[in-house]
Amino acid sequence: MKNRYRNETNDLRSGAEFDCRHGVDLDWPPVPFHMHPHYEFYLLIQGNVQMLIEDESFDAHPMDLFVFPPGVLHRALLIDSSVPYERAYCYVTRKALDDMSIDGFPVLRILEAAADRGFYSFHADSESAARFLRMLDDWITDAGSDDPSAAPMNRCRINMMALIACRIVQHRDVLVPRPPDRMSEIIRYINDHLLEPLTLESLSEQFYISKYTLLHEFKSYVNISVHQYILYKRVLYSQELMRNGTPPGSAARQSGFNDYAGFYRAFVRYISIPPQTWYAGVKSAEKGGFLNDRLGT
Questions:
Q1: Which among 15, 45, 145, 275 has the fewest CB atoms less than 10 Å away?
Q2: Which domain holds residue 284?
Q3: Is the pTM of this model over 0.85?
């Protein structure tokens, strides 16, 4: 990701349905907003961190749980590097979550309902957070084991972590976002007016700031340029349209692009494959086709 900011950061190996990690850093470099084609359950253990999610920001506290669905932009911003930044997180595909759902406890639907209401961040009670962390660390230990029981044990642990996360979500002890600052207001404005003409000049006039200030502050906050962000969000919207059956040509027009050539270049830049190929993969995935893992289904 040195010279390219891509839409999807797929942290799962090809064909894998889940993975877990536990990291500790004293220096966490700035990373751009990103999203995944799979779910991420992220538990902050220690550190002074601000979590940016779409156009909102949250002061994260130890044992706060963040649930990032596919397609939701997020970024962890380390405020104080004197405190170790420790977090535990796991990635799980939609399919795996749907497979573990039952009539009385529809895991995937519970998570999707929270996302529909814009709930991504939760205070976890100490017992649930400790159980989640213990399951995750045991998963990591057994992931490198040759014991034939390790793989089925880890599938059970993933199920347990998802169930624990759902119970935390259902409790609805959600984090309160920070008061919006100028950059979050600009991001919200872009999101709300994405299909309209958006330029540096129009945004500068709307928020009474110079183009230089806008460029500098936006890049510092999001870690990509205003133009890249607008293109990125339009590509994301075109994907949503294509998932719902809109052909690429129509999706290009409906997502704010002036011409198909510009849409094609942006789509390939961020998704790494042509829109026609991606659209064909969506149609194929509906029939159990070959791009299921790439599309996060």
A1: 15
A2: 182-295
A3: no
